[in-house]
Amino acid sequence: MTERQFDASGAAGDGGVPVDYSVLCDELRCHPTESVAAIREEAVREQRWWRMRELAATRVLDERGQVDDTLAGVDGVSIRDVRATVATARALEDLPSIAAVAAEGRLSDAQLAQVVKVADATDEAEWAQRAPRWSPADLAQKARELRTPTIADAAARRAARELRTWWDSDQGMLRLRGALPDVDGATFELVVKQIVEGMRPAAGQPWEPYERRGADALMMLVESYRERRTDQTTTVPGAHLVVQVPVSGPATVAGIPLPDEMVEKLRASARIEPHLVDPDGDLLAIGRTESVVSPKMKRAVLLRDGKCRIDGCDVRGPLDVHHLIPKSWGGTDTIDNLAAVCKGGGAHHGLLIPHGPYILLGNPNRPDGLTLLPVTDLPALAQLATQRARADQARAGPDAAA
Predict the structure, then answer these.
(1) Please, which of 59, 130, 161, 351 could form a disulfide with 89 given CB 3.0 to 4.6 Å?
(2) Which of 93, 102, 92, 4 lies closest to 51 in space, CA to CA?
(3) Half-sphere exposure for 32 (CA within 13 Å, toward CB)
(4) pLDDT digits (tens, 9 = 90+) for 319-366
């Protein structure tokens, strides 16, 4: 099965017999699960190797002036995809370590497209090792953080704001689609999340899906405005925005870099809670630690993580703040022992200790710092614990042991 070759037309190499998908599936059903998993892994590696061939060919054609937006129609992709492919192909020539890792099949196309925006000739060998453990979203966020936007960039984002509505008469539903820039988007997301997380069901009743509660939250805002128009003495509560201020580089809100001019404007017109972070984005301090996770600490964790921290899970809500080491096991309420995980029916929070069979360990301040392990995997747990102890000692300094 793994050695079967297909020509460019999609037909099998042995005599040009067309590929029968059902036959392929039936053949695989005769294999043990481990064999099927190995075949899939090999196929993924082959796809990624051929992607590198495509990028190299694109680079040469680009040098010869033979690549333009018309390639989108030929390949059946968007113009945006074509331009991203060209940008990746150009960047890879100066990033040999990353190109080698990608050719080995250790980087997905999505990861590769983002890491070339982050790495340069001075640190590409390091990123070649780190990038396979970063999600595409985290790499994209890192790329955004490396570029300080101008006030013109912020103005362009604001000019692109939109809200479209149209009626689906067959379903009797008003459809919506929109886009909000930086601060507006962060404010909207924060307020809606606060409303949604406060919508608890009546005793004995099931939770409504998060998306339905989100729609209800939007209607609550509409009703609030309508009531305010009726009674001008009623005011709508303001949102509590958190702006992260690094030692160097741009301030961010909800992970979106802000121009300095906008931060100054916000200081005059909004309530801001600044968080000082180090060059790696690690939170340095947010105030006194309390006996339970304070609202301020929860906000800091959710802001840092933005989504569920289980590898491969991109759920952004609803989220819970999870103690990596439970309080009952001697864990603390400090931010390096907290991580966001998705909650609700079928979510990941219920799978984690102390009640579930898995443990999430490592440094949550790094996008690739956490590892999910069964609690029964004692050797791996011991190795992680040793690594963390060494890291803690290194941060504390040489005099800590004394």
Answers:
(1) 59
(2) 102
(3) 2
(4) 888 888 877 677 788 898 899 988 765 578 778 887 678 888 888 998
